Amino acid sequence: MECTVRWTGSSGMTFLAETGSGHILTMDGAPDGGGRDLAPRPMEVVLAGTGGCTAYDVVLILRKSRQDIRGCDVTLKSERAETEPKVFTKIHFHFTVRGRNLKPNLVERAIKLSHEKYCSASIMLEKTAVITHSFDIVDDLAETAVEA
Question: According to the lineage, what is the superkingdom (predicted)?
Fold first, then answer.
């Protein structure tokens, strides 16, 4: 895997990342740090990438478990150290999984497998952060949420 990150050279703190697959991602800093607030901060991108990694796993695992999954959202809430390096110290993942007749034990198993075995990003981040998770299941037939 490869990625090239380039400072745009402007007076601000905007960077363009080109991934090995040829996609472009823009990142920027906060105005108080010289940025212009035009794009996500680099650490926000790390958090978003972790959410994408684990959501991908959960959907794939549930499909392989023959669950009728229709949607998967994950909200990540994090805390960072107050001093440099400002690593993540806590990250909570809350999944909202939508589908028909989803089995709560299989949803919980998919989330656990992602965090313990498959999601490289969350496994790396757990070296500095306490990682927790919760989930809701929304049945597309009943349109009611089941909390776990």
Answer: Bacteria
